[in-house]
Amino acid sequence: MPYRSGTRHRFNWFALKSTRGISRLIPTILVLLSGTQFSGQVAPANAQVAGNADGLVCEEGYEYKGGSCHKENVPENAHLTGSFYGPGWVCNHGFKRVEDRCEEVEVPENAYLASTGDRWKCARLFRRVEEKCEEVFVPKNGFIETRFGAQETHCDWGFRKEGRDCVEIEVPENGRLSDRRSADGWVCLRGFKATEAGCVFVTVPENAYLASDTYSGWKCERGFRANQDKCTAFIVPSNAHLNRRGDGWECNQPFNLQNDTCAENLPRQ
Fold first, then answer.
1. How far apart, in whole angstroms, are the C-alpha atoms of residue 80 and residue 247?
2. Which of 108, 118, 145, 189 fits a 20 to 30 Å CA distance from 244?
3. Using one digit for the tens of pLDDT, what is the confidence trace for 112-166?
4. Distance (Å, rounded) from C-alpha 54 to C-alpha 196?
5. What is the pTM of this model?
6. Tally of structural domains, the chain
7. 149 lies in a domain?
């Protein structure tokens, strides 16, 4: 006898509802099945049965050793970390670990307790010497600058380092204080060059210009060559060009130098 349409719909709805109910029970069934291996196990003191590899987990303040839970030995001035690694405890702030105990950090004069709480650091303008902080020497007309954790002594503008002191820089006439650190602390003004006598005027010859990177204080223009205190012109032969510095010439390719000329390198017959 064929099912009626209404009956078939009610049957399908009932089957769907039953399937959903069973699917909700699957996780619970799996959990129960996974715990059957520990169902007959009795947890030792200060422990709980768990579905892990050992089947046990110790209560807080206890550690698992030799199949049972033992009370952790937390020294005075320490607290539990809750970690499975290490001793399971750390010293309180202001104390440091010494073997299996916590000793108070003794902060010397002119020092402060570090943010980690287990050591001390010297205050600024002091440096550590063994277990105390000694004052850093700051010369007159000098100052301390901290770079990469190290305290360095520098001199004020117009002074230079000489031993432990900062001495005033004597700037000669036609000179000025240097922006860079140097032995003298001064440089000559443009148009002057440094000598033992101070800053002397640079006489620039014809076809030349001022150049502070030369001993004479001047350089010849391109196409001229220095000859004592003047610049002399030189002839560039055919098939040649000025070199990079401009004080000589080179042959063009594919010509070669031959007797102060540039000759073509002909193939052998």
1. 81
2. 189
3. 999 999 999 999 999 999 999 999 999 999 999 888 878 889 999 999 999 999 9
4. 87
5. 0.49
6. 2
7. yes
